[in-house]
Inverse folding.
């Protein structure tokens, strides 16, 4: 079995049937769909099987290299177009491809299973590896950030992106232990700072690793930019489908769809009445979570939430 095939075998796309069902209103032969987070290509394969033309994005060179070896890429390049770019750049990429409107967008937010399973990528502490965490393998690494940033900046990242209540204590321990070069060293420092008890249901290093990864890759900024870009690209009746894996991501998606769906908070009786903004998405579907069957096969799906919506005919508003 080749390395690419082995990676595919380990990777189980989350909520795959639900994603395809959410896109089904636009999945006709010839439909143009963006897979904003290609990864191992689980969603893309099903979209191709449905007859769609897929523009797949991934900033990870390894994912793009594996995709370029697919028969679909070699034998029918018009149906699978790989973009080695951030998904926040989809608007420019599609303009470069001469495409002004598309039928669907699917995003699977966060780190991929393949990245987590490769110790040399430095995303996880389950096996020791270099303290990297860069999805695109370029720019400053996690080690660069942790070994040079001010203590208060590290604490802010841990609190904001990891919701770590003892962020100051952890940041102080990280600075005292510098330089850090491996995931094992970082995990040890965090556990010692938080008084880790072996056998506890959740490793306390999880929150810090999540926070540092989100910061290094500017993930939440990327998500917000990608949602705006997708809105500008989707034709009336097009479908947006987003799978997120933790509360910070889902909060951004939920709020975006609430605002873009025309929902507004109840006005104060002390303020003049305002007309709600025209809905950019209508309807907005009810959120979906994995069922027991999927969780039994793929425990990593336990925190996933799927949100989907249909693009209206209203023109996109200028980003704030």
């Amino acid at each position: 079995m080749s390395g690419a095939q082995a990676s595919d075998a380990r990777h189980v796309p989350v909520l795959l049937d639900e994603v395809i069902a959410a896109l089904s209103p636009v999945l006709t032969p010839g439909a143009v769909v963006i897979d904003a987070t290609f990864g191992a290509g689980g969603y893309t394969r099903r979209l191709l099987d449905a007859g769609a033309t897929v523009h797949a994005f991934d900033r990870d060179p390894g994912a793009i290299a594996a995709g370029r070896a697919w028969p679909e890429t070699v034998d029918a390049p018009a149906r699978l177009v790989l973009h080695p770019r951030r998904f926040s750049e989809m608007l420019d990429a599609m303009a470069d491809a001469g495409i002004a409107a598309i039928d669907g967008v699917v995003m699977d937010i966060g780190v991929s299973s393949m990245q987590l399973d490769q110790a040399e990528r430095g995303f996880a502490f389950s096996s020791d590896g270099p303290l990297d965490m860069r999805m695109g393998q370029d720019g400053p690494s996690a080690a660069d950030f942790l070994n040079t940033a001010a203590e208060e900046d590290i604490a802010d990242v841990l609190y904001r992106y990891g919701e770590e209540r003892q962020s100051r204590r952890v940041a102080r321990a990280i600075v005292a232990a510098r330089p850090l070069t491996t995931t094992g060293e970082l995990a040890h420092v965090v556990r010692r700072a938080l008084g880790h008890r072996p056998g506890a249901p959740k490793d306390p290093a999880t929150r810090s690793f999540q926070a540092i990864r989100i910061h290094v890759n500017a993930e939440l900024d990327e998500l917000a930019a990608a949602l705006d870009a997708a809105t500008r690209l989707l034709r009336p009746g097009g479908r947006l489908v987003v799978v997120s894996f933790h509360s910070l991501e889902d909060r951004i998606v939920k709020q975006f769809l609430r605002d873009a769906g025309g929902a507004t908070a109840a006005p104060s009786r002390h303020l003049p009445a305002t007309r709600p903004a025209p809905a950019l998405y209508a309807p907005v579907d009810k959120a979906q979570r994995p069922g027991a069957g999927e969780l039994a096969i793929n425990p990593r799906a336990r925190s996933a939430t799927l949100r989907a919506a249909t693009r209206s005919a209203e023109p996109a508003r200028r980003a704030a």
Notes: The longest strand covers residues 234-244.
